[in-house]
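Hi all, long-time lurker, first post. I run a small reading group and we've been trying to get comfortable going from sequence to structure in the token notation. Rather than ask abstract questions, I figured I'd post a concrete chain and ask someone more experienced to write out its structure so we can walk through it together at our next meeting. Sequence below, copied exactly:
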Amino acid sequence: MNASQAFSPRTQHKRHKWFYPLIYIVLVIIAFLPLITERPYNPQQETSAVIFEILSRATAPYAAWGWIFHVLTLAVIGVAIWKPALGGRLMAAYFGLNYLVVAATQSSADTPSYGYAIHTGALVAEVLLGALWLGVAWRGDLRFSPADAPRWRWLLLPLALLTFWSPMRMEGARAVPDLNPTLLLTSPDYGLAYCFLTPVFLFLLILAWPNVNRFALRVTAFNGLIYGLFNLNHWAVPERVWLGVMHLPLLILSLVALGLAHFATAERRVNRET
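-- Answer (accepted) --
Happy to help. Here is the structure in token form:
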């Protein structure tokens, strides 16, 4: 194979055919990494229980700082609308750092049943996402210009607002709605919880598309899809149905973002081949 063949669009397409499936397999493997616990647990029967205990307690010490993430998110969006290029870098950097904060605060906790426990898969994924988006910020591969977004994308706004608001509180093992409007700026769940942070970020990326790093978008959306599917199990527990509702934005927005990136790639492929 000569140099012109090695870098031809058709050869690059063949590489891409296995590249993203491989990345997705790696993300699935990371998601299924075994938990680390001080006291032993049965992986087949107790994994969900361990994760629930971790997530129920991990961010409690930081609840008073919830308002900071709301204010910073709004500030970043404001800058991005004012100056799309600079704001895009700032947005990518902010969410990259926020993923690192989530990795540090939400992925481990001292649980009553299993002692100190670490959600290994979430920790690894969040660190990787943080590094990925800091890299996007460094390269300037995100430009946020929502005025150019098709109108249908704005129909997804209520999903992002739901997780930004996070109108929920835990009463023991029971999740109940809490429609207090002050949570729009104070909820500790939004900025400290992966499953509530990610839908807001995905919505902003959907508005910015196609001025988004495609690789970073697909990795973020596919990882969100994994955890969106995992959290469907809340619907099977009557006390946690509201948690199931709160995780629908993650599932839906992940699917939409993946669809945008996939179909755009397929369209370009057809154009090259014709």
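A couple of things your group might point at:
DSSP finds 13 helices and five strands in the chain.
The radius of gyration is 20 Å.
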